[in-house]
From TrEMBL:
Keyword Signal part of the UniProt annotation: yes
Keyword flag Signal: yes
Name of one Pfam family that matches: DUF2155
Keywords, alphabetical: Signal
Position of the signal peptide: 1-29
Species of origin: Nitratireductor aquibiodomus
InterPro entries, A to Z: DUF2155
Stated name of the protein: DUF2155 domain-containing protein
């Protein structure tokens, strides 16, 4: 086999392996977008645990924390359960300043992985919902 033929054979093998990997890669299942995120929070001083619902792009205050979900997704019922939300959490300091303490994805199936752990308050994602008893935010 000549040098050029070896290179072409090697390239063909790489292409074949790449196609095999693509053919066996899992297909990304559709994700369902929801208008409400459900959180659980704990006040470590009082031991009080509260569940609260928040509409997307709205802010709810839990103690000294302000929780704002931006998007909340679940997997389809036929797929393995997966619930995640992109969330921003701000702290209101004793000086009345607002300081961002968390920006990122929270995973309901692994609440300890990306929960907000504050000195007094912890918050984690419990799930996503289509509706809630909480009145929707006012629109101007």
């Amino acid at each position: 086999m000549k040098s050029g033929q070896k290179k072409n054979a090697g390239f063909g093998l790489i292409v074949a392996l790449g196609l095999a990997v693509l053919a066996t890669a899992p297909v990304q299942a559709a994700r369902i977008k929801h208008p409400v995120a459900e959180f659980t929070g704990i006040d470590k001083i009082t031991g009080r645990i509260i569940s609260f619902d928040v509409y997307m792009d709205e802010t709810v205050q839990f103690g000294a924390l302000q929780v704002t979900p931006r998007v909340c997704y679940t997997s389809e019922e036929t797929e393995e359960p997966r619930t995640d939300a992109f969330v921003e959490v701000d702290e209101i300091t004793l000086d009345r300043e607002i300081r961002r303490i968390f920006t990122g994805w929270m995973l309901a199936e692994s609440p300890g992985l990306n929960a907000v752990e504050h000195a007094v308050y912890d918050v984690w994602l419990k799930g996503c919902k289509e509706d809630t008893d909480v009145p929707p935010p006012e629109t101007n």
